[in-house]
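TICKET #2291
ISSUE: user wants both folds in one file
ATTACHMENT 1:
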Amino acid sequence: MTLNSAKECNPTYAQTKENQRNVDDWVQTLWYHHRRFRKQLEVARNRNRGSADFEFFGQPLFYHVTTTYRTPCSFTNEETGIQSNRFPHLDTKKTIEFINKESSLLHNHICNRIVRNHDREQNRKYRPIALSFVDFPGTRQVRARIHTLAHTHAVYLICPTTQNLMEDLIQKNFKLDQNVIEGSTYTKRNTLMISGVHAKVITSSKQDLTNVIDYASKYYHSVETRSLDEDHRQMLWNLYD
């Protein structure tokens, strides 16, 4: 057996290669949208040649957005009937579903704040692209602490024409106290279940983007998630556009 074939038969090596392919695919997807935003700006400049409206816009920016979630108001474990005011410590799937829902609502909240009438077809091209991953403390250690300090790591790609509004939103703590949730499955609240959001610009190089996505996806790629059913494992990452 050759050295290369021995490596391919090693489960750890094969898993590492699969993880790298996933990261590469995610990077390529975001870079595609990066080029799309650049093309949009170029077209706008050509249509408005001589106007200063589009001249001061720079390149599309990536942000690493880390969001920490507050505990839900109440959860009842379906199997045991036990109600908890903390994260559902007996049900990993419920925790994942909760964070998955809140992550989607946060993206919608940001769209509402930086793109006027973002649901209209002609405005959807200005919406931020977000690649979001569920994570927990201890992922890089022996075992993730599933039901404490649940958070997401997301890469947000912001269109140049909305960057000023995004920066203003970051400075104002994402205006979390002003958001009203529509269609939430959690009653008697009108704010996101978020304790904090931190955003940092990622330098627009593929290697920096790769490093952030590799870090953000560490729980998704961990051994622990292999025991999840496919539906819940796929909830560990989402691409919002």
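ATTACHMENT 2:
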Amino acid sequence: MSDLKQMMKNKFDENRGLLKEVAIAVGLDSSSTLSKWLDDPRKELADFNVLVSTVKYLYPDKEYDLISEHSLTLDPKKQASRQALEYADVNHLGELADRLIIRLKEAKNATSNEWAAVYELHRKLSTGEYSVLQANDRLCGISIKSDEMKVFSKVMFLYQYLNKREFNRLDETISYINMDLVEGFSSEYVKNSYRARILMLKANACLFDRKLEETRKYVNECLEITDTVRFLAFGYMNMGNTYMFESYDKAKEFFLKGLESCQHRDIYKYELKLSLSFLANYWGKENKYLAEYSDDADDLQEIAFWNIKNGNKEKALEILNSTNKDDLDNFQLAFDSYFRGLITLEKDHFYDSIEYFILAGDKFYRTAPLIELKKLGESERSLKIFAM
């Protein structure tokens, strides 16, 4: 019996009513499913969702450690171990994912071998070890038969297209994903996880394309089907971003919900705090989220922005000049030019900002320099063209 099973069994023995309470909380018709699983050392839960929900309910601050340890006790030939691999990957538990990939690769089961091969490609693609072209070439050498991997072998490329702002390729690839296959998955956990991945990718793409209502639609659909912290954090962040230039209060409300959702998962907090910092600076509010002692380029830009808003333009310019532009990507260069425009009120800086945002494939934050150009008297017709 795994340590997790024994922990739960001891907890339920101490409180006889807790088993029924948990069963109801995780959506089971009766407590017998959990009882049978706990009483049989070899038995595995058919749906990983039940395991995750139970651990979240009983040990919310130990979820990742407990499920990670338990996942490595699962039979790599069976579905539970494959579901654990998706859990590891979607929760950015890289070490666990790598260990499970090895276990599944060595298992005497063709489906587990197939999952291991595809997820290994995804891992190498995510870490930059493989390019999209290299991953595509290697994917051609894998005979994919399971419905899950027919879907995931396409989903894994969407992250690369999103990061490169290749929205046409992202939309095209999504259109090739057979959602009927997803709906037919036997595992509710994998089904909802893949659906959430696709919905959040669509939301991200729509945000960058300044399709705000569609962004909100996809985020809401995602949040209805998942309680995975990754999707909660980025879902609320995307929702908050859609209100960035419309409503300080609404944007802040969603960003704070995002922070609250990842209280046990620090890796998602940085981007939320960065969004809160930009929001406070943009609206001229008190900023509690400045990383004052950071050397990170994004943090330095936020500190410069805060100084601009507080009338310290010389200090802001000093900070901007201290960064090496060769180390900045187009997105960061766009903000650098935007901040310089706020300091000098020279239109050229705002036009530079727009050009960099275009190169970065971002229409949403392009709103910021466009607003400033409007204040400086640029014609609505010109601004409309640059907003396209």
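RESOLUTION: both attachments delivered.
EXTRA DETAIL ON ATTACHMENT 2: Residues 155-227 form one domain.
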